[in-house]
Here is the input.
Amino acid sequence: MAQVSTIPDEIASFMTNNPLNHEELPDVINLAFSGERKPEAWHVRPATRQVIRGFNKLAPVTVMLPLETWRKLIKKNDICLWNQAVKEGYIHIHGDKNASEAVSRIFSTPVNPVQEIE
Here is the structure.
C-alpha cells in the first residue's frame, strides 16, 4: 500500500528540493491552500524547515494557492511551471514588499532559461 503524502511532507520536500537563500527569506512564511472541503493553513520557518499547522500572525508574507495546483506543481517539480503559475495568478503572494519579493524568488526561473529548439 502506497503511503499518502501529507501537506507538511510535501512542504518539507519542496524546501529540500529547492535551494532557499535563508538570509533573504523572512523568518516565517504563511501558506494557504484552497479548494478542499475546508482551506488548509500552515506556516513555515525556512531556516529550520519547520512546518506548523495554522497561520502565524507575525509572518510578514502569505502565499496562497489551490491545493490541486500545489500538488500538480510538486509532482512535476519544474521551476518554470512554478514561475508560470505565479504569472498566471494561480499563486498569490501577499504581504510586506521585501518579504514578498524574497519569497517570489523561490518560484522564479533562472536568468538564462533553456530555450526549446523548434
Notes: Helices lie at 7-17, 67-76, 79-87, 97-104.
